[in-house]
Queue: 2 jobs
Job 1
Amino acid sequence: MWTFILRRLLYNVPVYLGILALLMGALRVNDPISGKLGKNPAPGDRAVLEEKYGLDKSFPVQYFALVADVVTLDFAEVESWTNDGLFVGEMLADSVVPSLAITVPALCLTSVLAISIAIISAFFRGRPVDKTLMVLAVVGMSVSFLVYIIFGQYWFAYSLGAKTGTSYFAIGGYEPGIANWPYYCLLPVLISVFVAMGYDTRFYRAVMVEESGRDYITTAKAKGATKQKIMFVHMLKNAMIPIITRIMTTLPFLVMGSLLLEVYFNIPGMGRVLFKAIQEQDFPVVQTFVAIFAALFILSNILTDVLYALVDPRVRLS
Amino acid sequence: MAKFMQQRGVRKLLKDRLAVSSMWVIGAYLTVAFAVLLGNSFSGGALKAETELRIGADNVPGAWTSQTAEERLRDATFYFDNIKKASRSSDPASAYAALEWGSDRLPAWKADRIEAELIAPAAELSTALEVHDELEGNIEALALLQQFEAVIRGHIGASHDADGNASRSFGQSFRMLLGTDRQGRSILVRAIYSTKVAVQIGIISALISVLIGTILGAAAGYFGGIVDVIVVWLYSTFSSIPWIVLLMVLASAFRGTELDGTLIPVYVAFCMSFWISPCRVVRGEVMKLKELEYVQAASAIGFSRTRILFKHVIPNTAHLMFINFSLLFIGAIKAEVILSFLGLGVKHEPSWGVMINHAKAEVLNGFFWQIGTATIFMVILVLAFNTLSDALQDAFDPKHI
């Protein structure tokens, strides 16, 4: 197993270097300096800014500086371009918690609900209950994320508050602390669960249906096991493999937060910080955030494969 | 064609009633889109200009709803304010003639007649109305409002009889059918025009992504070796950057250039992030296909490898191309909304994303016509494509989850 992990890690080194190169290249297509200079810059201004940001150095030098930062995991010295005196390490530390405050509960709730609905749907496969649920899922998938956010905010933050006289959900913003969590974060979490529900339910149902056609189910039926027992004991256990894979692949996205929700509800999470950084062409922030995300993404992929082997004895790591 | 129709998958697809009806829906959307495209280019951009046209007051609700008294007053006051403004200009006669909202305009009276029969009584009624704070349930005020409306709205229309009584043209009723947005522009016209933008973005980005993905994936799967290593490296790289971040970085790379504001940044961003999934799927399929007898027979005959790849292998991945095209089309339309919200999407043109994004502020005032229209236009198309993708998958690739 350790040789497998080591090999996969080594294999991903060129991929990771590629990600950093692609990112830096794509960022530098558009000249970052001209936006930061005033309307009538003095001739020397450009050179001063370039030197300040380290853009006067050649691309390989900048590239290896970033690689060095990532390898040593030292972001305390990397200064943001647009917020003077703010360091990327600090921004990272401040924004991780708000992001996780939304994505972790959302992922847990979505998974539990979607798997439960998928089980119900698969249990009544082909019957009206199943058909209704699947139609709802497809219709739900066809509505834009933004529409859910707009209506969610209108109904729960504005309308509900205006009708009852007390405000249950914040229109936007964020305060740290568990006590403040329901007021600021519950609504975004619920919207996020609602949006993901269609996709996840369909996926999990497909997994269950796929499993229900396998030989071991036929054997269990022939043995005389009840439908309930087959569903929950035999099938669910085997369906866990694709379910775990799916949850694992979404894990790295938790850190990034739900960018749209954070932007809309003014939650100072990583997604919103990243969005602002891209808008303001704040390269150190964009590069660091994406570099960290990509590293987590690759690691979680490897971890998924390892977990696969642990859960399913048929899978061999080679 | 006949051979194509007889394929097992195609027959299965055509038997699926839902799939066939969703194809009709998609066909209808495509027809509208091409009609808008052709109409716009033949009329020299008249349709695009139509989407920017002010046709009336702000946020007028759709035709068949009853307005509240406040809304009716606001609506009539909008026209009255415009007419008053024209009367104060240096040349009132031509200012009156220049007043138009879509095809609605004032009767072709002399300036003093407009002054006497329209502005003077309206001003009197308007002052009388100002006394009343509460309009709803106030019989006296409602009567005044009705007179005020009759004076103002009764004279504004596409055509007028001798007394100046107006009637609306069909075109104006059509424009007003689903109300107006915050700038008094027709929501229906904008939503229909947006169909063109959506179809354009969907087709172009899905087609290019599928082509790039298929060619790279097929080459990787078929040739193996260094080609495979490079392609796998390339898509692993692209897929390790979160999709939305890649989209934002690519779309903002064009800021300030002359391509800013066109659809090119949107296409580039979509194609560069969408080609990965067809590439991955086709590569897997081709690796299976190349072991089959017919491919080995073709190479035994002595066909070149490129010929086998393009003539025998890639055509057999056509079903995957269709499925992926359908999925990416949905992806493009939905991603357009997100890009528009983030300010990186379509500019200088209406699109469903732009409409939904503009509707944010209206929703807070309880005006749902714009967001509702754009959403319904979008949902029907996306729903049809979702249904079609499912049917395509069932018909051609049943083992897929």
Job 2
Amino acid sequence: MTGTARSDQAELDTDLMHSIEDSNKSLASNIAIREGKGASSDAKELAEMFAQVEAFYVKRGDAVDAVELAKKSRALSAQILQSVSTGDFGAATDSATTLSRTCKTCHSYYKKS
Amino acid sequence: MSTDSSRRDFLLKTGQGLGGAALSGLIPGIGAFGAASAAELIDPLAPKQAHFPAKVKSVIWLHMNGAPSTLDLYDHKPDLVKLAGTDVPASFLKGIKTSTQGGVGKLYASNRTWKQHGESGAWFSDLVPSIAQHADKLAFIKSSMTVGATHDISILKLNTGDLNPGRPSLGAWVTYALGSANPDLPPYVVLYNGKSEPSAGSVNWSSGFLPAVYQGTAFRPGASPILYLERPELRAASQQRHSLDLLKRLNTLGAAQHPADTELLARVRSYELADRMQSAAPEAVDLAKESDATKALYGLDDPTSASYGTTLLRARRLVERGVRFIQVVSGAPDGETEYTSWDAHSDLEKNHGLMARMVDKPIGGLLADLKSRGLLESTLVVWTSEFGRTSYGQSGNGRDHNAWGYTQWMAGAGIKAGFTYGETDEIGLQVADKDKAVDTYDLHATVLQLLGLDHLKTTFLNNGRSERPTVVYGKVIKELLA
């Protein structure tokens, strides 16, 4: 993982956001080609990174929506991990698409200045 | 094992066809197109099975270049009229980042009259009286949103789903997934009116990382639609035929010695396709046999709408000939140099007055013509743009770009006609309910669904990564489906 989120910063680390984007694309691909090991690894990484995002916004204290969306993303990452572990790639695809939409929703609230 | 079956086995195992990795079944989801047959390996445009029964055979993708103000065409906002001339209330600007040079202007209402049409009671302004006659054929998406950037970047997203070049356009994905329904014509054609190709360029009909055979073919306005397609004057048809026959014999001999060389076999086919297209393509766009009544229906009798009407009449002829995806980019009336797109940062009345007059009658004519010929039952018409325009004014009498809430519509096969999905806020600036926001990916997923394709299973392996038309997004808007 390359990105970090220091909660004393005013904005989230761009590297962390790029890492999330990369892992999300890799996840979509790994689910599509039913590469369980890779998909699990991506989902775990995403869960960890969303935990960092959540911690950042909790610390900032003025972004309830972002905290909720980060929590939702972390939960979706866990769901994907579960679906992949049981070989249900259809459910994993649905969760991954919802996860991507959640990313977009959050970005529409918190645009880069 | 026979020679044929071992050859097929070899090709399937090595996956060396054009788009070989995809066709060889290395990619999950591709199996839904059917196992790769020898014909598919030889011909990447061979018809392929959809994932489920298709409602739509052909798509006419009407791109309104420059971004019309749908607030002045379809999205009637009485509150905007009431508040015109005042500052935008802060509550309406929440969550968006405006970048207008000189700041956000006062709310602006143009000089429109509005009327409800059809049983659906859909609102239309006086700028689109012909389209209004087809109110009950349309399904509006009044909660469209996208990423607002420059026109070229947002147009790229509209067509490919990405802000950077390199991804295939929607038409290319369709061609890749379904193949061609007419071996004499390109399955994916781009039409435009005006003097030159659309400014955003051919990257908008590119095949991206898909094999180049799936890219769109731009048909120029005029009698000769494809550059360099015509036979040179000094060369007789029989001479060309003899040359091609000799070339084919020699290539076939070579192919027999190198059965795995599918590129050679594809080349043989491409020579033959070019030969057939020399007569098929000009005939497909030749309007000489169309009646005066049909030409008038498309507005060919009005200098303002004649060139755009010509592209739409050609689009109908291409639909009749089985072309799968026809991308029509609006240009400018012949001879017009002041207003060449819908991009009305100023003088919205003049700009939209001209642009609407250019497209309204042809689009109304197209819908009527498709309906009367029974083609609307198998054709999808999509009225789309890279973004919309703001409720607040710019330069006194224009509007800026608006990616946060605008209107697009679809009509035809598989569509819930006379229906409106989503809405913008009271002044038409943002999508009212964000859960109903329709982004480019959702529009693409819905179009693919109507063509019988699951956007999640329409995949291609590029540099080891499985790619799909909707990138990592996409949701079929089921409410729009009949």
